[in-house]
Amino acid sequence: MKIAELHQIFLSCKTVSTDTRTLPKDSLFFCLKGENFNGNTFAKKALEQGASYVVYDDEEYTPEHENAILVEDSLASLQALAQFHRKQFDIPVIGLTGSNGKTTSKELIKSVLEQNFEVVATKGNLNNHIGVPLSLLNIKKSTEIVLIEMGANHLKEIAFLAQLAAPTMGYITNFGKAHLEGFGSLEGVIKGKSELYDYLKENKGTAIVNGDDQKQIQQSDGLNRYIFSFAKNAQNHLSNTVNEAGYCTVKTGDTTITSQLTGTYNFDNINAAVSIGKYFKIPLSKIQRGIAAYYPSNNRSQWIKTTKNNILLDAYNANPTSMSAAIKSFINVDAKAKLIILGDMLELGQYAQSEHQAIVDTIKESNIQDTILVGPLFGSTNAEGFKCFDNTESVKKHLAKQAIQDHTILIKGSRGIALEQLLDLL
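Given the sequence above, the corresponding structure tokens read:
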């Protein structure tokens, strides 16, 4: 079946789905395969649950139904459909990637843009080869701006996602030590993330660039750029402070914009959202409203006050760059008793040992009174004086016996360590 024909079928359906557990009626269902599952086994069930059409690629599971569409590769068909659908719209599409802060930046930008426009944006962190197509297929005739988050842990992935999304604008949050196992080195990270710039250069797009990040300036050279910076002579001059309540603010001209985010590492995320709002000529009063409306959730830089302690939960993910920034920001938090609980940083390959030791050394040089390290990678460092545990379950047993009270606590680690499980004991 030709993509144009599949697109007409898609337009006759209410939505697209890949999961029978959350399948809306009148959907176009794609049977996708992974290492541990085969969506083709659910083809018949999807139709029984009310899917209008099913796209499958394994004849062994052919459902006896006139609306079952056999293709060579269901995933490739989903991606081609999304690419075809995207091309039907002549509207701004913002591609967003980077090592740290992608989802926070995306949510802030979305909140600002929604003050003036109808926006389609990546939901959660569905930013891969499946999530990006699903996001693109949410574009409707009434959509005015699209915001697509792009994640990657290998070279050529951003290039592929950019071909699908065809962004007219792009923003790279930063280049950091994330997914070093896949990218091979920091240089590999820079090359991989800069594939977004490469696409914009080839297609005469515009880059939103942090002018205080020299690597971004260097990599975006030759592009049409809208630059924000602390420099007073900048195209878009911004300044940042932390207010008395501990929240990050940004000042542009005579206007102060206050967020519900803490941690100086969030300055760039907020600045980018404000800058994109200004680029699209959204009034500052609406930009203020958009920034103030975003509240962090899903274990991302959340301040949580329990009956016992005040906790900064940042346990969604971690890499050396984000962890170092979080620790340095936490050092400046005004509190009598501080505790840091850190979980292993995963996917670092040959750099794992040295990067975990560097984090330990950073803490040793700080004024932090107490530290708990969780995971075998931190356990293999020279962490004399720190409490080290093999896993989160071991920490839970420790905390059940030794209660912690009246502390300000930073909790940060990779998703696989699941440090949010400690909340009930803190």
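Residues 89-293 form a domain with the UDP-N-acetylmuramoyl-L-alanine:D-glutamate ligase fold (CATH 3.40.1190.10). Try to locate this feature in the token string yourself.
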